């Protein structure tokens, strides 16, 4: 089974212990400031350990829960997301859903506004991108989806994933108009974007609030055709005194929650009940907004084991895998320098 990991793994492995019998397993690769979650690609069912539905969420019956747990991403997205996007998704290694994808996608495909509340690296970006590809029409030259991000760096990452998913199918037989994704980010070439927006509006815009507000104020583009609005890292945006008035304006003046599907994503939403209340009261979302709360950040485990192993550069990868196999930790953090794609034999990850 393919997963993403690093060829230059530093053998610094932190594992939580003592572990209960590992029926589920979770590894976090941490490249600088971001966690990458490998659990879903390794076909884990982490739900029992990490998931929680809060009272605002749609309860799942036991039977439905069991069925949902075994569905692939393709099965969940079938009849919603175009086939060539599903093909690309699988080529990129997204086969089994993460917890947040499993729980949020059916809610999103049913048209509900949603607060995606799940830890960093849990797969929120792919969740809202799949929703976007289920809704937009590439033949319409209009901004149909807008993703607001707090920083240029996050904007570049989201744009990259959006473009990778939308890449034209290799098969020349498949006639497919390609989706256009524009990154409208602070520090970018806004003049060039202006001409592009006027000449042929893209289907999806990924924007920081500063650049976006400039364009909206100058009426370079309008949000009349916007069907999906995503605000990523919503807690960060609402906590920034610079960004908060612009985001409020975007949510209520430049567009109306009745004409769009609104998704807020965040790893942490302090006072989430209050936020949910505000969403409805302030008309940032419709009244039936669903709070999908998955993988709440767990308190620190009672014990952390830190293994320090000295080895040659070429041995790192093999040694890491054998340590994981021998220790069988329930969870761990792996610090990596860079990422390349590599294939794990399934025996290595299927604990
Ligand atoms: N279903 C999946 N199968 C395998 N890998 C996945 C899946 N979904 C997401 N990933 C990978 O997991 C990593 C984290 O995903 P993503 O960036 O979407 O998380 P996130 O919740 O949006 O994180 P953040 O809160 O930092 O924005 C990425 O490398 C992504 O490619």
TrEMBL record:
InterPro entries: DEAD/DEAH_box_helicase_dom, DEAD/DEAH_RhlB, DEAD_box_RNA_helicases, Helicase_ATP-bd, P-loop_NTPase
Keywords on record: ATP-binding, Helicase, Hydrolase, Nucleotide-binding
Domain Helicase ATP-binding, chain residue ranges per copy: 105-287
EC number: 3.6.4.13
Gene3D superfamilies in alphabetical order: P-loop containing nucleotide triphosphate hydrolases
SUPFAM superfamilies linked: P-loop containing nucleoside triphosphate hydrolases
Keyword Nucleotide-binding: yes
Catalytic function, reaction form: ATP + H2O = ADP + phosphate + H(+)
GO MF terms, alphabetically ordered: ATP binding; hydrolase activity; nucleic acid binding; RNA helicase activity
PROSITE patterns noted in UniProt: HELICASE_ATP_BIND_1
PANTHER family with a match to the protein in the record: ATP-DEPENDENT RNA HELICASE DDX6_DHH1 (PTHR47963:SF10), DEAD-BOX ATP-DEPENDENT RNA HELICASE 47, MITOCHONDRIAL (PTHR47963)
Protein name from the UniProt record: RNA helicase
Organism listed in the record: Theobroma cacao
Species lineage: Eukaryota, Viridiplantae, Streptophyta, Embryophyta, Tracheophyta
């Amino acid at each position: 089974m393919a997963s993403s990991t690093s060829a230059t793994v530093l053998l610094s492995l932190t594992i939580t212990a003592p572990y209960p019998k590992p029926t589920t397993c979770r590894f976090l690769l941490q490249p600088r400031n971001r966690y990458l979650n490998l659990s879903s690609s390794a076909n884990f069912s982490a739900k029992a350990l990490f998931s929680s539905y809060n009272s605002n969420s749609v309860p799942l019956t036991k039977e439905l829960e069991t069925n949902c747990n075994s569905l692939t991403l393709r099965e969940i997205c079938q009849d919603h997301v175009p086939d060539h996007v599903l093909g690309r998704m699988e080529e990129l290694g997204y086969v089994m859903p993460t917890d947040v994808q499993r729980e949020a996608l059916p809610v999103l495909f049913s048209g509900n506004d949603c607060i995606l509340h799940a830890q960093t690296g849990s797969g929120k970006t792919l969740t809202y991108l799949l929703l976007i590809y289920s809704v937009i029409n590439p033949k319409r030259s209009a901004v149909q989806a807008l993703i607001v991000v707090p920083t240029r760096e996050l904007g570049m990452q989201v744009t990259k994933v959006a473009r990778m998913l939308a890449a034209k199918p290799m098969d020349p037989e498949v006639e497919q108009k390609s989706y256009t994704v524009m990154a409208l980010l602070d520090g970018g070439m806004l003049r060039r974007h202006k001409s592009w927006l006027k000449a042929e509006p893209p289907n999806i815009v990924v924007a920081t609030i500063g650049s976006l507000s400039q364009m909206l104020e100058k009426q370079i583009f309008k949000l009349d055709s916007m069907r999906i609005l995503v605000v990523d890292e919503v807690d960060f945006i609402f906590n920034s005194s610079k960004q908060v008035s612009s985001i409020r304006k975007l949510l209520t003046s430049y567009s109306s929650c009745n004409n769009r599907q609104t998704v807020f994503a965040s790893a942490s939403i302090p006072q989430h009940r209050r936020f949910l209340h505000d969403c409805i009261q302030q008309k940032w979302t419709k009244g039936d907004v669903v709070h999908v709360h998955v993988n709440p950040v767990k308190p620190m485990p009672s014990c952390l084991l830190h293994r320090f192993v000295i080895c040659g550069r070429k041995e790192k990868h093999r040694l890491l895998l054998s340590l994981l196999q021998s220790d069988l930790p329930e969870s761990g953090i792996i610090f990596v320098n860079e990422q390349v794609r590599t294939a794990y034999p399934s025996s290595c990850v299927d604990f």
